[in-house]
Amino acid sequence: MVSERPHPSTGRLDRLQPYPFQRLRSLLADATPPVGRGAIPLSIGEPRHPAPAMVGEALRVSLDESLGRYPATTGTAALRETIAAWLQWRFSLPSGRPDPAHEVLPAAGTREALFAVTQAFVEPGNRPAVFMPNPFYQIYEGAALLAGGEPVLLDTRAENDFEPDLGAITDAQWARCGLIYLCSPGNPNGRVLSHAFWERLFAIQQRHGFVIAADECYSELYREDAEPPLGLLAACQAAGRTAFEDCLVFHSLSKRSNVPGLRSGFIAGDARLIERFSRYRTYQGCALPEHVQSASIAAWGDEHHVRDNRRAYDRKFALARRILQPVAGYHDPQAGFYIWLPVPGGDDEGFCRGLYQASGVTVLPGRYLSRPSREGDPGAGYVRLALVAEEAICEDALERIGNFIQTYA
């Protein structure tokens, strides 16, 4: 008789929750869209606009030469200098700040860097709490759990203008905080955090000491006629925190330049944290191939394609205002490519399933991006729409959603 081999304990892995799109597949598994109507996915935030030609060209030109070399964890000086110059231009930072040699670190997109930051800086035996907005990008929660930390949720609700409620956290809770994730512009609500918010947070940070990790991957998808969103480094500069003390920003080319497959981004901020993070990443083994770095230099060095990108999103958000606002009023996002749409009756899962069966359009239930709190689930009663497809497809999908809302209501 062969005894069953015991499974090794997975511990922290068992605490991970299913990813939102896995839950969506389960919700729609036995649902059938109408015959003769093509399916339109608005559930996943994967950019569909054309990638800039110069990025592909730079990739091809440098590919053969770079394949025979291991890339350095810190990237090439040329890439770091290009990133630093872009940050200075974009956020009106003084010359030489950030310092490309000590305050900039390339990353394989924001996802891997946002995950890795907790592994590097959260100490479960000392300051285990990892704060994050609720709803949130699920990587924040998974990173906290796998680092042995404790996720602490800051609800973002309409009545609070979708800003995390810092006042809801006690001094005792702040004292246990090792790191706080913030997303500005926000996913899913498109909210840009204000100077006043950052000043309040800086005052708390000075009392308690923790790392601020600002996910700014949607920062370039603002409305073309609006002010560019404020970033954490600019907020630091305005507050006199010229060394970006205990602050890190995370940026990506995926949304800005429509190249999610390139897997390229960066971390910038406090030189002391960058040095420690670089040491961690040397062991982690995550370095950008040199041909990816060459393509990234081309992307960060060009703003024409970024302006074209914004104008394309502007047209789609104008369509959404015309079609959806009259039947389901929503907060127009300041930036990003999502609409955080309130659902008639508040049943986001039922709405999502009914919409798919009636029209073939998939959206993401808001509760799949959030967790219940004492005040209720801040994601329940919303669905997230990603306006990433080409304009005609988005218009078709928005019309279908608008017609369904009138029937559903």
UniProtKB/TrEMBL annotation:
Q: Does the keyword Transferase apply?
A: yes
A GO molecular function term, named singly, is: succinyldiaminopimelate transaminase activity
Q: Which InterPro entries does this one have?
A: Aminotransferase_I/II_large, DapC_beta/gammaproteobac, LL-DAP_aminotransferase, PyrdxlP-dep_Trfase, PyrdxlP-dep_Trfase_major, PyrdxlP-dep_Trfase_small
Q: Which UniProt keywords apply?
A: Aminotransferase, Transferase
- Domain Aminotransferase class I/classII large residue range list: 40-400
Source organism, top-level taxon: Bacteria
One matching Pfam family, short form?
Aminotran_1_2
Identify the enzyme class.
transferase
The region annotated as signal peptide is: none
Return the EC number.
2.6.1.17
Q: Which cofactor does it need?
A: pyridoxal 5'-phosphate
- Coiled-coil spans are none
Q: Which NCBIfam families match?
A: DapC_gpp
Q: PANTHER family in the record, alphabetically?
A: AMINO ACID AMINOTRANSFERASE, L-GLUTAMINE--4-(METHYLSULFANYL)-2-OXOBUTANOATE AMINOTRANSFERASE
Instruction: Identify this protein by name.
Output: Succinyldiaminopimelate transaminase
Q: Which organism is it from?
A: Spiribacter pallidus
Q: Which gene encodes it?
A: dapC
